[in-house]
Design goal:
mainly alpha; 434 Repressor (Amino-terminal Domain)
Length: 82
């Protein structure tokens, strides 16, 4: 019996939008996160943006500090019915 996985909503587009607004490459952002004790490599972060991997809360907390934004900015547009 084949089981199909339902794709969940993800905040990847919002993560990418915020990163680009701040003029950061994935590499530079990961370097900032690593300085804040988040052991995140560029490949892992790219998976967050593409929706292949769910972001850890600890990383989200540090991104909020880096971007000086609200948590709502990460979840913008995700409550729209599919």
């Amino acid at each position: 019996m084949e089981q199909k996985l339902r794709r969940d909503r993800n905040m990847g587009e919002n993560l990418k939008k915020l990163r680009l607004q701040y003029g950061l490459s994935q590499e530079k952002l990961c370097a900032q996160l690593q300085r804040r004790s988040c052991d995140i490599g560029r490949t892992t972060y790219a998976k967050y943006e593409s929706g292949e991997l769910n972001i850890r809360v600890s990383v989200l907390i540090e991104l909020k500090k880096i971007y000086n934004c609200t948590y709502d900015d990460f979840f913008a547009g995700l409550d729209v019915p599919e």
